[in-house]
Amino acid sequence: MRLQPPLLIICYAILSFLQPFLLLVLAQTNPSVTPINWDLYHSSDDLVEQIHSLVHRHPDKLSIETFKSGNKGYNAEVNVVTYCRGGRQSDDRSNFRILLTFGQHGRELITSELAFRILSILSEEQFLPNINGGATLNNTLLDKLVIKLVPIENFNGRKRVEAGDLCERRNGRGVDLNRNWGVDWGKKEKDYDPYEENPGTAPFSEPETQIMRKLALSFDPHIWINVHSGMEALFMPYDHKNTTPEGLPSQKMRSLLEKVDKLHCQNRCMIGSGGGSVGYLAHGTATDYIYDVVRTPMAFTFEIYGDNQTSSRDCFKMFNPVDLPTFKTLLNDWSAAFFTIFKLGPFHLDQNSTKAAEKWVSIDEYLDGYLVERKNRYGKNMEVIDVGMQEIKTYFRLFLLSSVLLMFMFCSRIAKSKYGRNSIPVVMQ
Ligand SMILES: [Zn+2]
């Protein structure tokens, strides 16, 4: 047995000393992420099946349609549930019409659970919790309502999330369905990230958006709500600029949101224009199109939950409650919030007034946009100090890895040269 040269022993000793640090670095580079809690959440297939069964148990109140569309080998389908009591025709223009969409972003599973809860309450299989007086709707009110509800707008994207791509928000071919609409489409901000916000090849390039546009234009709702998660907020137009529309329509929207915030969000929810309040502008969004082009007088984007303490890579936990008490409370609070809107919406909006909304710009809102805390567009607080610490950690990891690599190369080189020197006498003999 040949003796190790002393230098090699030192090298191995150093490498052994560094081994725990190396493992730690590798562990931090790929931290564990929270998996989907299947005890709390339905799979998309199960949810669709449950909703079909619910509708079939209540033909006097609920009906369901499936719309299909596709192009360039990509196909999508969208289920739309209609709530309309007494089997009346949903195209009766005297009704007060509400259009709700959930699950536009794949990773926001909780929104579709809320859709199912709202449908269960509308069918009277479940009941509103008696919180904050509850918004009990009497038959006279319910008779005037027609609600169309899309439980999972982005079914293909949701499938990708269920297959393990927990941070996916885009559709089945990588387009953000909330950037694919026609108002201010395709404009990119400085911090544009195609992984998150790819707007597609053209406005309405995506089958899902085409279906939603058709639905909105034909149904012509009085209220539109696009339900998301990632933070707690009640947004009104606009997303693509730092302002809200001015005048009475805007006041009515804001006043309804303030009531919902007070009753169901304990005044925690951020209220204002999407573009002004969240700290970044979003172009080609559904709500801006529904307000500007479909001319829906009350067009909102709700953000119902967000865990901004968690790592932005831990997407299931960031966008969805992971424990039963939070899950239950959230569904109770937000289903109650929607029933408050079903109750107050018609009173806040004079049905006889024209649906054309006034679109003046308020300089106050413009300035307000600069005074709120800036968040990055994925819902995570990105304060300067956090960014600095993250970069220092990354550089430290790189430094440690490169040191180990250099040490390894150095040791191999010594080993080689020693072996080389030893080998010469062998050959010579
Ligand atoms: Zn979203």
Write down the CATH topology of the largest domain: Aminopeptidase
Structural class designation: alpha/beta
The strand line-up of the biggest sheet is: 1-2-4-3-5-8-6-7
Q: Number of helix segments?
A: 14
Integer count of domains: 2
State the name of the first-level CATH class of the largest domain.
Alpha Beta
Number of strands: 8
Q: What is the helical fraction, as a range of percent?
A: 40-55%
Bound molecules: zinc ion
- Regarding quaternary structure, what we see is single chain
Entry keywords:
429 residues; alpha/beta; Aminopeptidase; 2 domains; eight-stranded mixed β-sheet; 8 strands; disordered C terminus; binds zinc ion
Short structural summary:
The chain is globular and about 85 Å long.
Overall description:
Pfam families: Peptidase_M14. It comes from Brassica rapa subsp. trilocularis. The active site is at 303 (proton donor/acceptor). The protein contains 14 helices and 8 strands. It has helices spanning 6-29, 44-57, 109-122, 139-144, 155-162, 194-197, 207-219, 248-264, 274-277, 286-292, 315-319, 324-348, 363-371, 384-428; strands at residues 62-71, 74-83, 96-102, 145-150, 223-228, 231-236, 270-273, 298-305. Strand 1 (62-71) and strand 2 form a beta hairpin. Helix 3 (109-122) crosses helix 12 (324-348) and helix 8 (248-264) packs antiparallel against helix 12 (324-348). Residues 22-30, 356-391 and 418-429 have low confidence and may be disordered. Bound molecules: zinc ion. The site of zinc ion has 5 residues, from loops.
